[in-house]
Amino acid sequence: MTIYNFAAGPATLPDQVLAQVQAELTNYQGTGLSILEISHRSVQFTTLLAQAKQLLLQLMNLTEREYEVLFLQGGATLQFTMVPLNLANKFHRVAFVNSGHWAERAMAEAKLIPDLAVEEIATSAPQFNHFPTVEFTGPAQYDYLHLTTNNTIFGTSLKQLPAANLPLVGDLSSNFLAQDYPFDHFDLIYAGAQKNLAPAGLTVVVVKKSLLSQMPTALPAMLSYRKLAAKDSTLNTPPVFQIYVAKLVLEWLVSQGGVSAMEAINRQKAQLIYEVIDQTNFYHNPVRPADRSLTNIPFTTGNSALDQTFITTAEQAGLKNLKGHRLTGGMRASLYNAMPLAGAVALRDFMLQFAKDHAEEK
Amino acid sequence: MTIYNFAAGPATLPDQVLAQVQAELTNYQGTGLSILEISHRSVQFTTLLAQAKQLLLQLMNLTEREYEVLFLQGGATLQFTMVPLNLANKFHRVAFVNSGHWAERAMAEAKLIPDLAVEEIATSAPQFNHFPTVEFTGPAQYDYLHLTTNNTIFGTSLKQLPAANLPLVGDLSSNFLAQDYPFDHFDLIYAGAQKNLAPAGLTVVVVKKSLLSQMPTALPAMLSYRKLAAKDSTLNTPPVFQIYVAKLVLEWLVSQGGVSAMEAINRQKAQLIYEVIDQTNFYHNPVRPADRSLTNIPFTTGNSALDQTFITTAEQAGLKNLKGHRLTGGMRASLYNAMPLAGAVALRDFMLQFAKDHAEEK
């Protein structure tokens, strides 16, 4: 039985990548050492770090001249703190678009920074069934505007970046390299890697180099982008294994045609599921169609017992981790880059059959 | 040719552990999923997290009633900041024993915390060729005393914990579970995992539960022990893979007889190398014998060209990563738990032969 993993993260990784990791796990590039034992000061690691940075910039259409890539730890949650600590230096005032749970978490952490004004300038609360519209008129006295581009829980995503005359910060964790943005419109991008890039334990930050020199100099080393950048992400021992897997995934993404090709496949995968939802009248998704996420699709039958039967039956059929987030209930299908089209087809077919089999129970 | 990896960290891991990681990498416990894809909310992960915590406490002779185990990210360097943020609440004054580079780094980061007095109460600077003696008389108006129990670079280690009537904090990174201490004398222990426990990207913190409730409540989530403890290290996505490998290493340590058995083997391994150093008059180690580290042995021939020949020739013989730290030059042999006795024997034999072959060049 083919297994497909629809978990929201940690999530499925490309089969080819897993096969390579397994094959060379006890002997990395003929060194006789495992990648798990390789020093972060070794030529093997510094080479793969440079390759990973270069591949990432290439995939995002960014230049090394303009952007710094950092491979950090602590997840997006630590970035909720690091971003204001490093960037909120001029106005001590930051603007957030509240598009759901993770935007709210980012705001809550920013509010813990002393002497910082945290303002919600647009919201889709409490239902979060659309992406809030962001409109700026006149000069914006904010250090930055923070966006969470995709909402893993509520299944919305931002399709068009707002035109704003202030620095743009994006938490791209759940559609990182899965949806194509003009990445150069961002001043700082961060993403937990465990959805689209690598195993849990790696956070990617891509930041404009011109900002680094304006950042405070007296922050603790592990909270300072400028100190971490000055040491090329090896201020202390970085998560070597995750960076290695990320490099393999980045190579795989290039081989698949890059971010725009991935977005096209992701649209196709998502479309298969949204079509069943819209056409059968058996499943429901509350999100405004224009704002629907490509990577995270929450849905329900409207009957929680039937939802539970769906989740259990799907699990038995090899369609794993379709249980929805506790805040929404129901089901959720996460269709990140590494989910093959065949996985979405298998889910579509299962949904159609399940709707037939259980039509009476609604 | 058998390869032995003497790197100071990331370091060698037990062969059995690497074999098991490789064998089950694409199918963890029959789930059809890789451990790299397993959710941190899955029963598979919560089970292994609980097992890892229990094994660690068992190995340290600590109880779950009294101590909390946290599996974090950011390395010891982030702990240099987190420890004072969480613990320096009463006197806003902390005491450090300066036993070398990493103690100095810990002090430097503590000094970046506003309104905190950082005092060096004992030092072995500038040579760091012994472990400073710590003596307390009278009441100590410090929030804690910070010790770096083993010095990876200078090759010293603390043999007997000081009798001090104040909370004891230990950075045990480089002799964690390799040297037996009365761990219950510590109020907080931290260790980067990449030397004795797991691949880089995991930091272990063991803290007295009674301290948690006294810690500040408004710290950023990822910098707050009490918030991280309240969510059992899964406040956000933890480094699942590293925790999994740590659990395998902890099982291996139990199978080897635990920490006191490991210390006995480590003494035996270290003794082989120190004997060559002391008896041949070809190699030198500057550390006071009573304070010599069991896990990190720096040595030199006294001739930098000959040192380079040693390092290159050893590498060709499969004895890898013997280059000393840039601060000391020369050679360094790291003999952590996972280095088998046979590795130390191979190095001893190589050192004897090299001394014979190059006796004229000194």
Automatic annotation (TrEMBL), chains A, B:
<comment type="similarity">
    <text>Belongs to the class-V pyridoxal-phosphate-dependent aminotransferase family. SerC subfamily.</text>
</comment>
<comment type="pathway">
    <text>Amino-acid biosynthesis; L-serine biosynthesis; L-serine from 3-phospho-D-glycerate: step 2/3.</text>
</comment>
<keyword id="KW-0718">Serine biosynthesis</keyword>
<dbReference type="InterPro" id="IPR015421">
    <property type="entry name" value="PyrdxlP-dep_Trfase_major"/>
</dbReference>
<comment type="subunit">
    <text>Homodimer.</text>
</comment>
<feature type="domain" description="Aminotransferase class V">
    <location>
        <begin position="3"/>
        <end position="340"/>
    </location>
</feature>
<feature type="binding site">
    <location>
        <begin position="236"/>
        <end position="237"/>
    </location>
    <ligand>
        <name>pyridoxal 5'-phosphate</name>
    </ligand>
</feature>
<feature type="binding site">
    <location>
        <position position="194"/>
    </location>
    <ligand>
        <name>pyridoxal 5'-phosphate</name>
    </ligand>
</feature>
<dbReference type="InterPro" id="IPR022278">
    <property type="entry name" value="Pser_aminoTfrase"/>
</dbReference>
<dbReference type="InterPro" id="IPR020578">
    <property type="entry name" value="Aminotrans_V_PyrdxlP_BS"/>
</dbReference>
<dbReference type="InterPro" id="IPR015424">
    <property type="entry name" value="PyrdxlP-dep_Trfase"/>
</dbReference>
<dbReference type="InterPro" id="IPR000192">
    <property type="entry name" value="Aminotrans_V_dom"/>
</dbReference>
<feature type="binding site">
    <location>
        <position position="102"/>
    </location>
    <ligand>
        <name>pyridoxal 5'-phosphate</name>
    </ligand>
</feature>
<keyword id="KW-0028">Amino-acid biosynthesis</keyword>
<protein>
    <recommendedName>
        <fullName>Phosphoserine aminotransferase</fullName>
        <ecNumber>2.6.1.52</ecNumber>
    </recommendedName>
</protein>
<feature type="binding site">
    <location>
        <position position="152"/>
    </location>
    <ligand>
        <name>pyridoxal 5'-phosphate</name>
    </ligand>
</feature>
<keyword id="KW-0663">Pyridoxal phosphate</keyword>
<keyword id="KW-0963">Cytoplasm</keyword>
<keyword id="KW-0032">Aminotransferase</keyword>
<feature type="modified residue" description="N6-(pyridoxal phosphate)lysine">
    <location>
        <position position="195"/>
    </location>
</feature>
<dbReference type="Pfam" id="PF00266">
    <property type="entry name" value="Aminotran_5"/>
</dbReference>
<feature type="binding site">
    <location>
        <position position="41"/>
    </location>
    <ligand>
        <name>L-glutamate</name>
    </ligand>
</feature>
<dbReference type="InterPro" id="IPR015422">
    <property type="entry name" value="PyrdxlP-dep_Trfase_small"/>
</dbReference>
<dbReference type="GO" id="GO:0004648">
    <property type="term" value="F:O-phospho-L-serine:2-oxoglutarate aminotransferase activity"/>
</dbReference>
<feature type="binding site">
    <location>
        <position position="171"/>
    </location>
    <ligand>
        <name>pyridoxal 5'-phosphate</name>
    </ligand>
</feature>
<comment type="function">
    <text>Catalyzes the reversible conversion of 3-phosphohydroxypyruvate to phosphoserine and of 3-hydroxy-2-oxo-4-phosphonooxybutanoate to phosphohydroxythreonine.</text>
</comment>
<keyword id="KW-0808">Transferase</keyword>
<feature type="binding site">
    <location>
        <begin position="76"/>
        <end position="77"/>
    </location>
    <ligand>
        <name>pyridoxal 5'-phosphate</name>
    </ligand>
</feature>
